Automatic annotation (TrEMBL):
This is inorganic diphosphatase. It holds the Pfam family Pyrophosphatase. The keyword Transport applies. Residues 1-17 have a biased composition (Basic and acidic residues). Solcar repeats lie at residues 24-119, 129-221, 223-317. Its cofactor is Mg(2+). Its EC number is 3.6.1.1. Its main location: membrane.
Amino acid sequence: MSSRQPGDRPKREEGPPHHALPPPSLTVTMLASATASMLSRIPCHPLDTVKAKLQVGAQGGLRGVLRHTLRTEGLRGVLRHTLRTEGLRGLYRGFGAAFVGSGPAGCLYFTTYELAKKGLLSVGLVGQSPFLAHFGAGLLAELVSCALWVPIDVVKERMQVQSTLAAGKPSYAYTGDLHAAATILRTEGLRGLYRGYGATVLSFGPFSALYFVYYEQLKGLAEAFSASNDSSTSASTRRPPPELHSTNVLDMAKLRMQVERAGGERTFGYTNVFHGVARIVSDEGWRGIFRGAGARIAFQAPTTAIALAAFERLKVGYGRLAERVEAREVGTPDTPGYRVFFYNTEGKKISPWHDIALTEPGTRIEQGVLRYVVEIPKGTDQKMEIATDEPWNPIKQDTRKDGALRYLKHGPVLCNYGAFPQTWEDPSAEAHPQVNLAGDNDPIDVIEIGSRVAQRGEVVKVKVLGAFALVDEGELDWKVLAIDVNDPKAASLNDVSEVEKQMPGTLAAVQEWYRVYKVAEGKQKNSYAFDDKALDRHGHESWRKLFTARSSPKFAFDSTSGAQ
């Protein structure tokens, strides 16, 4: 339904510069990572406490039942002993520091990874190797985020093991997490809060790097074989990499260094992490280097899995909130000055053509669930369209050559009608080799066949079913057939071949309406390519290319490069 002359190049809105809304934004990433890290701590913290108790349990000062439990009974024995002697509260010592601190630390960790991954994938030889990019980004994320993780660990671990190490010693009599942090800072200085920084990087760096390598590979495989985008959950819950087991001795030496008070009685007396490893091997034998490894894996594997799965899902959820769009009417309908402008959640004006994402965060174009902007609601006859040549691309009523407002003389549209954002049919290029016609110089049109009457300016998520290749005044004008994902029939419709069974006569009526609607305006009938047939989304090679030819300048769903 283009009113411009063939070859007129649509202009990107002039006016003030604005920000597109790419999913996910940095703010969304930060919020999702902080929330996910905090949530993962709630169910898993008791296992972390058991691990800490096991790793300090070989020191010679312990006596009696506790020493026997720590040295012989392992995870379950320590869990039972702690519950019996300290109650559930004993398993959650240090939780406050871990829970509150996990927000900013997890935010820094995941955000650093996302930014580093994006940067490394765009750099030379590293960018050509996803393994190197993911490995490097994971290692860098750990290195940077340790600036927050290490002080959290020092406070948390001293609270977790003080009942094990204290034996009534005043030096370990912390009354709570805040008291522990304040006491360490007062008596040991900032250096006390950063004990074991290097050991932390050494023990967690390899795990972080290789975990993200495995995660990204498994996520890619899951996406390739899954129609949904729940791949993050399945990828994140795979077996953790073996580095958790092989670096256990480093983690143990790190923890023992962190729980000792500088200047106080030295329980272990390690001068650095390598000295600690040597002492562990010397004093406790080769079996000693794996003390608490089972508890470490039992804690780290679900914690990381929960955090990653929650992170991916929260990115989608927060992304949807961040991308909410409000349509505001300016002027009076059925007047030349009437416009519908669009605003984001910050109240800033945006373009419905350039700034609304075609897909929701976390979904892929190939899944066939896209967003479209409603221009003409079902049952109305005002010829409304996105004004591609005006600042901010508002929706306006089209005009005839004499300046009069344009109405659909053939009658109201049978279905909701609109356009896909961030798309453009190039009038300077052949739209399809079998048809030998150029595009119509507009965003790609959508015919939504659901039962609900949509609102003008509404952004609706639809399931793509197929398309008609309408030939309109010598231009190929794709009409994408879709249905609102919330329509009662949406679940049973996956392509155009099923529409006739569920909604008899709908395709024929729609096709005939667009064939003849210009006759009432004194123009010729339109025609259809491909022998008047609707192209099925799944069954026709030319239609599948509309989803996969992302870099094509002829017809690419996510390309507005020609419209800048």
